[in-house]
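Input record, target 12 of the design panel.
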């Protein structure tokens, strides 16, 4: 089910307005979008498009009517007001993209969102049907549709007039600072399932390494640093301008047995 966009999710008012108009279009049809823009004094579709892109300012009267057209809670209206006041003279609606997207906890419960986001960033025409064909062996049709809706809702991808999907956010995606989510376990588990299904791919198209090694457990933090450096180095390859493929990867290391005696607890720690 298509979620009603919330002002809290967006950094700027044009981003919220763009997502809200897309919601109206998908749920109620294009005429509803036209009626909504007319309700706050914008009759031209071209003018409305310029407003959504942040290229045109709205007058104070139009902003007042815009606020009246939205069914918002008190806290949502306060958030909208603060975003408007934070812009130049309260009416300049800059559409500058945030440098970092702080994802909600459930975003990393499955790799489908990052997979579709990266597919939409490839050159060529990426449509819902093409994404379904690519991911049909790993995810259900509903999971794919829900993910596309979620990415659109968070203004990470956008559906063009011709139906193609494009990635519009290129910054890093992370959880808020200090937040550790157990829901990430689902991301790992699904990645390992997909890896098992890749055994039959030609060796030239995949890389799989599994090994057992001995280590002083005090040196394990160094091993973790090496794994993180590998991920960083791979991300540097990913940052190149020309990218034609999407890969899913995972590196794991975990203890099987530690011969050191367990630390003895002092009496006052029992």
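The sequence produced for target 12 reads:
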């Amino acid at each position: 089910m298509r979620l009603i966009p919330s002002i809290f999710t967006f950094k700027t008012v044009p981003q919220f307005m763009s997502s809200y108009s897309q919601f109206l279009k998908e749920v109620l049809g294009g005429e509803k979008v036209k009626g909504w823009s007319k309700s706050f004094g914008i009759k031209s579709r071209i003018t409305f498009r310029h407003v959504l892109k942040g290229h045109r300012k709205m007058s104070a009267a139009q902003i007042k009517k815009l606020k009246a057209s939205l069914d918002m809670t008190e806290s949502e209206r306060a958030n909208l007001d603060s975003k408007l006041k934070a812009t130049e003279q309260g009416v300049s609606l800059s559409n500058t993209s945030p440098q970092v997207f702080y994802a909600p906890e459930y975003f990393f419960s499955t790799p489908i969102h990052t997979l579709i986001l990266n597919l939409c960033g490839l050159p060529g025409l990426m449509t819902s049907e093409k994404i379904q064909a690519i991911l049909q062996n790993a995810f259900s049709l509903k999971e794919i549709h829900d993910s596309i809706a979620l990415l659109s809702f968070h203004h990470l991808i956008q559906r063009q007039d011709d139906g193609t999907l494009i990635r519009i956010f290129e910054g890093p995606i992370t959880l808020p600072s200090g937040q550790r989510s157990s829901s990430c376990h689902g991301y790992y588990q699904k990645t390992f399932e997909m890896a098992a299904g890749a055994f039959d791919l030609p060796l030239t198209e995949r890389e799989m390494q599994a090994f057992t090694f001995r280590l002083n457990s005090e040196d394990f933090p160094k091993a973790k640093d090496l794994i993180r450096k590998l991920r960083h180095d791979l991300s540097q390859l990913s940052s190149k301008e020309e990218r034609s493929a999407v890969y899913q990867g995972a590196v794991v290391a975990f203890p099987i047995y530690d011969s050191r005696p367990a630390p003895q607890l002092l009496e006052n720690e029992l």
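The first helix runs from residue 13 to 28.
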